[in-house]
Amino acid sequence: MRVRSIAHVPDEIQMLFHPSTLSQLVSLQDRMSLLRGDDRFVYAVLLGILHANARTDGTPRGLTVAMPNTFAMAPNYVKQYIRVHRLKAPEVDVLDAVAERIESLEIPTSGFRRGAAWMQDVRATIAWPREKGKASLIFASPPYLQVMKYGKMNWIRLWLLGHEPKDVDNGLFTSASLARYREFMTAALKRMRARLRADGYVCLVIGDVRQDATTVNLAKEVADGCAGLAGLRVLEVLDDHLPVKHKVSRIWGETRGRATKTDRILVLGGPKAQRLPAYPKIDWSSANCYGV
């Protein structure tokens, strides 16, 4: 098998990794296949540790120079930040890092029930496996109008998977029009309803967005304008007022876009779905909320 040289890796990727670490990643790319279950698992672990923020001593937690632990900033911004702060990429043994991460995941024993997963566009008929019954719960987070480009914000992970960020973003629904957004959500909910049990639930995480000087409650837009048309009942809207200092969007500073500090969970139910019990209140001042 021919293994590629890191000289063929784009410059914006090379600046993030130590040459030894990057060589290992390229070698794994050449040897692994997403068609194999074990390789998909390794890829999933790698995507989780690929880049992260810094420890208290300034050293990176991931495989790249220290970066925000969810989204990747634009390549030119990262390049300048590396130069200004004189960041050095850590030399990491990739397989050792993967093994350490796997040990921390508390993988279930052989007695667990195996699940099923597949990928498809919600704008097409949902291809549900014949052997599976209808869903009792669907949990999703639809796009927030044009708040962010998911491909662009994940360009490092997409490089590892062999995808172009622009291709990913071009394939996703995005619109600044509330009318078009409602049409999209109504069609999506109708397809979900067709695969939901009569007593099942659909939970959607939908954050508020800003349009000019106006804050738009997207959860209310979907509840009022889409749920009924899809044959679903509105059971609850849970408000999650997450402090700005704990939101990922804080990394964008004054230019953090149209996202607000309020997320909402819209709980919809089928015709026979029961009302939910009272939910616990979350204390965001607790360190346990962040796994520290």
What does this structure look like?
The chain is α+β, with helices and mostly antiparallel strands and 292 residues long. The chain folds into 2 domains: 6-103, no CATH class; 135-290, no CATH class. It has helices at 11-14, 19-31, 37-49, 75-85, 94-103, 155-161, 165-170, 178-194, 218-227; strands spanning 135-140, 196-211, 214-216, 233-241, 259-269. α3 (37-49) packs across α5 (94-103) and α8 crosses α9. The protein starts with 10 loop residues before the first helix and ends in a 23-residue tail after the last strand. Residues 249-258 have low confidence and may be disordered.
Write the layout of secondary structure elements.
Blueprint: H1 11-14, H2 19-31, H3 37-49, H4 75-85, H5 94-103, E1 135-140, H6 155-161, H7 165-170, H8 178-194, E2 196-211, E3 214-216, H9 218-227, E4 233-241, E5 259-269
Helix pairs in contact: 3-5, 8-9
